[in-house]
Write a structure and sequence with these properties.
eight-stranded mixed sheet; 252 residues
Length: 252
C-alpha cells in the first residue's frame, strides 16, 4: 500500500468508536479476570490505544492511573478530547510514541493493556519489549488474531489472506508458548464474540464509503478500500476459522 493510500486508511478509521474489534464488555471481562492480581489503584499502560475506547473503558473500571500511547497523533488527539470531556486529566494521560521504542522507566506499570496493537511489532517481540516495563509479577492483557480451527480445516483463501496480511497468526497454544518464551505465565484467554466484530466493521464500512464519496475515482482511496473490503469479507464469512483472542498473562 502506498503512503497516500495509507493516509486514506487512517482517514477511514479516524473518528470511529474503535480502531479494531472489541467492546466495553470484553474489556471489562478481561479486566475482571486479572483484577485480583492488581493493587487497588494500578498504574496502567495502554499500548496502541487508538482513539481511546479501551482507555476510557479501563478508566471506568479502576481508580488507577492510565497512560495511553499511540504512534498516530490523530488518534491521540481523539483520546485527549475524551479525557477533557470526562474530566479525567488527573489520572489519564497520553503519549505519542512508537511501541517499539518507548522511553519509559523500567518497572513503572502494574498492568499493560493492548487491544489489537501488538501485531504491529510482532506478538512475541512486543511481549519481550514491554516486559521490562512491568513491575514485580505485573500483568499483560492483549488481543491478538489466532487460528480457532486446525490448519488443515481452514480454507485456502483464509490462509492466503493471513499470509498476505499477518503471517505471524498462530493457534492459541502457540501464542501462549511464545508468551512463555518471552517470560510470562499464561493466566487465561477468551475469544472476542461476533458482536465485537460487527461493532467495528459496521461503522468502519459506513465511514469508508463516506470518504470514498468525497474522493470519487481516487486510485489511492480505492486501493485502501480494496484492502478493507477483503478484510470485511473474511470477518463476515470466516469467523469460525480465526478470531481475535484476549490473552491474559503475568510476568514470570
Amino acid at each position: 500500500m502506498s503512503e497516500r493510500s495509507f493516509q486514506f486508511f487512517l482517514q477511514f478509521h479516524h473518528g470511529l468508536p474503535r480502531q479494531g474489534p472489541g467492546s466495553t464488555e470484553s474489556t471489562a471481562k478481561a479486566f475482571r479476570i486479572i483484577e485480583p492480581l492488581l493493587p487497588p489503584e494500578p498504574a496502567i499502560l495502554d499500548v496502541g490505544c487508538g482513539g481511546g475506547a479501551p482507555t476510557m473503558a479501563l478508566a471506568g473500571l479502576t481508580r488507577g492511573t492510565i497512560l495511553g500511547v499511540d504512534r498516530y497523533p490523530v488518534f491521540i488527539d481523539e483520546l485527549r478530547r475524551k479525557i477533557a470531556e470526562r474530566g479525567l486529566g488527573d489520572r489519564v494521560t497520553t503519549l505519542v510514541a512508537d511501541a517499539r521504542a518507548l522511553e519509559l522507566s523500567p518497572e513503572s506499570f502494574d498492568l499493560i493493556w493492548s487491544e489489537g496493537a501488538l501485531g504491529s511489532i510482532g506478538f512475541e517481540q512486543g511481549l519481550r519489549t514491554l516486559r521490562p516495563l512491568l513491575r514485580g509479577p505485573g500483568v499483560l492483557a492483549a488481543t491478538e488474531p489466532a487460528w480457532l480451527r486446525p490448519m488443515d480445516e481452514v480454507p485456502d483463501e483464509v490462509r492466503q489472506f493471513w499470509a498476505d496480511n499477518y503471517p505471524a497468526i498462530a493457534s492459541v497454544d502457540e501464542k501462549f508458548e511464545q508468551a512463555r518464551q518471552a517470560g510470562y505465565t499464561p493466566l487465561g484467554h477468551f475469544t472476542l464474540p461476533d458482536e465485537d466484530w460487527a461493532a467495528y466493521v459496521g461503522p468502519l464500512e459506513r465511514h469508508m464509503n463516506e470518504v470514498l464519496a468525497e474522493h470519487p475515482g481516487d486510485p489511492n482511496a480505492e486501493e485502501a478500500a480494496r484492502a478493507e473490503r477483503r478484510e470485511f469479507e473474511m470477518f463476515r464469512n470466516h469467523l469460525r476459522d480465526f478470531g481475535y483472542v484476549f490473552f491474559l498473562m503475568q510476568r514470570s
